[in-house]
Amino acid sequence: MHLKKTILVMALLSAGLLVAQEAPQEAAVSDWEEWQETTIRIGNERDGFNDSVEGRRCLTNPEAHGGYAYLPYLAKAPDEGRVLLLMTVGTPQRKGRLLESTDEGETWHDPVPKGNRGIDGWGLTAVGNGLLFATDGLYRSDDNGATWRDMGGFPVNPRFGSPLAGWHPLVAEPGTDGKHLYKTLHFSRNFNYMDFRLEPLISESFDAGLTWSTPRGVPEWSSGCEACLAYNAKGEIVAAIRVSTLNAPPDDEYHQLESCWSSDGGKTWTMPKVVAGNGRHHPSMVLLPDGRMVMSYVVRLGYPMEDGKFAYGIEAVISNDGGHTWDTDHRYMLAHWTSDCMVTDENGHTYQANRWDAGPNNTSTIYLPESKSLITAYSTPQNICRAVKGQSLPVQVGLVKWKPLEHYSDVKAVPPAPIPADEALRQLRANAYWPYNYVAATGKPDAGWLNSYTRAALSLNGEWLRLDHRNCHGICSARGTDYLEMANGPVGLRLRLNIPKDDNAKPNRFQLYAVVGSGQDRHAVHLTFDREANLDSRLFGKCELPTTPGQPFLAEFWMDPRSRCYRLWIDGTLVKESIQPVNYQAAEEPARLWFGSGAGNVGGFAEVAEFKFGPVE
């Protein structure tokens, strides 16, 4: 009976009348999502983003590589048609993964032959003839990455006080067939996260990376940490440097981007110029066939919050003079995302992670000669939603294909009309929260003042804070703070001030100076009250105020960078109003606030009973 049943089943299968039931198989997770069309906006905050170019964007699948794909670096050897991509994948055990593409990054696969291509490193460099390098230490492959040799890092000078770290790719001098190479490194004297000073170094190899010169410091790079190098069409070496702007920032978000160049093979360098302000760094540069240079970089800070969420992005700028200057009037917004940084851990507990957790980590840009386009890689935690052992996931690798424009439109956004003065004063007085709020009666600042500092101990005179500057004391300030960095709307000031009569021959004066604004659209506020309790400022010029020395008064200030309107009230009376053009420029310093009773050799003192400063909601 069993034999007959078996024969019947086989006959039905052969006739196609019975479908065999197979065990269900789990579908493999694709490494990449589908390519999507994207519009890349071009412009700036002052004039608007009035140009655009069409591009395409692709992300790794959030579930691929255990939800962790990080630090992508692209490389294209001058003698090959393929593109290489090295990224760090996996969590908690992380390793390097090398991929290749033979269709300009449209699809990716393991290189053939596969070999031993797992390499723990980043900063991928391909110089031709099968020669590859990866940094974080130094790894060298002369067979297109099938095998790797650990070069043992770089010699350490005892005075450095710590091992040397590499980050960016190497750069090869044109015409040397990859034999003459430059590498940048950095060291720290006291490694305590960001509570230390990094210093960048440079080293050379004349034998295709087999041996290297002792790393040396570059005086012009002082206060920098990571330096990226590229050659321009003139044969000069251009450096893009991440430069410290704060003594001890709380996270790795801060620091600005500067650039300089050397025309003698790295022996001497020009003084760096600021390209982008605080929160923009991790650059990558590439030379185009027409002589222009492109620099991509991350934006960790500088965008205002959107719908209560933090905002981040990837930008690019172009240089038309070999990296001597960069066109920040026409910034390319390659990618943009927001996040509330809410994640759920293994125990089901939902909490807000640090803003740092959703920010970008690096950029890498190369030129694709076949399509005459660019491809930019970056890592992004834009979709973080869970935390595994303290690590916010997923982290993805993004790719953007795009072409820079050759010409831009002349269209500029028209600033809005300022709101009426009485409405501005009402909003200013109704503002519920001031990031910088000092009440002298208590002698203590609120939480918004915790990241400020004083040069000397200040004294309280009743309910007045006395700023005595005869001995260069009495200055309070705050630097690099979120509220000043991301302010893109009205900014207000409320100040109860007294400039007492004094027989000191030196003039008394009270000064307020602040740099505020989102992105690279920075605005400077500078007010000075002189010893006669009048105004003497670059903003309003000189004017008499309805008060006298020894008579306390309330000063209220309103600044709206969108309408470019500035107003000042004294004891509720509008005494000055001004509409001024705002020149868009890359910030040469982080957002900061300074107030005190003078500067340098001025001397004199002032008394402050209340100081409130910050965005007006």
Describe the structure.
- The protein is mainly beta and 617 residues long.
- It folds into 2 domains: 38-65 and 153-357 and 375-402, Tachylectin-2, Chain A; 421-615, Jelly Rolls (Sandwich).
- 4% of the residues lie in helices and 42% in strands.
- It contains 3 helices and 45 strands.
- A 9-stranded antiparallel β-sheet has the order 19-20-21-22-1-2-29-26-25, with no helix packed on it. Strands 30, 31, 33, 34, 36, 41, 42, 43 and 45 form a 9-stranded antiparallel β-sheet that branches.
- A hairpin with a 2-residue loop joins strand 27 and strand 28 (391-393).
- The longest helix is centred in the N-terminal third of the chain and has 13 residues, at 2-14.
- It is elongated and about 85 Å long.
- It starts with a helix and ends with a strand.
- Residues 1-27, 191-196 and 446-451 have low confidence and may be disordered.
Short summary of the structure?
This protein has 617 residues and is mainly beta. It starts with a helix and ends with a strand.
Helical content class:
under 10%
Number of helices: 3
Shape: elongated
Spatial order of the strands forming the largest sheet: 19-20-21-22-1-2-29-26-25
Give the N-to-C terminal Cα separation.
86 Å
Q: And the CATH topology of the largest domain?
A: Tachylectin-2, Chain A
Overall pLDDT score: 84
> Number of domains in the coordinates?
2
Largest sheet: 9 strands, antiparallel
Class from helix and strand fractions: mainly beta
Low-pLDDT runs: 1-27, 191-196, 446-451
CATH architecture assignment name of the largest domain? 5 Propeller
Q: Could you tell me the radius of gyration in angstroms?
A: 29 Å
Q: Strand share of the residues?
A: 35-45%
- Beta strands, count: 45
| CATH C-level label of the largest domain | Mainly Beta
